[in-house]
Specification:
There is one protein chain. By secondary structure, this protein is of the alpha+beta class. It contains two helices and four strands; from the N terminus they run E-E-E-E-H-H.
Length: 78
């Protein structure tokens, strides 16, 4: 998708309760954690994904859309 503007809005789905929330993705940082608005569980990326959007959302994060490396894939420990 290089050369086009990334999509910044995505729907993130909680794997615990199935709640879907439309969110705006940050363009300047990866989002490693996300509080589900349905059940309150703290989501973190699946192994191998750089952020919660790449793991649980309908659209991957902007850096991945652009074909560049996202943030360091080693997320901080909780």
């Amino acid at each position: 998708m290089t050369g086009t503007k990334p999509i910044l809005e995505s729907e993130i789905t909680c794997p615990q309760c199935g709640h879907v929330s439309r969110e705006i993705m940050p363009t300047d940082a990866c989002q490693w954690f996300y509080d589900c608005k349905g059940c309150g569980v703290l989501l973190s990326p699946r192994e191998g994904d750089c952020c919660v959007f790449c793991s649980y959302a309908t659209v991957p994060c902007p850096p991945v859309q652009e074909g560049t490396d996202c943030c360091d894939s080693s997320a901080p420990e909780i």
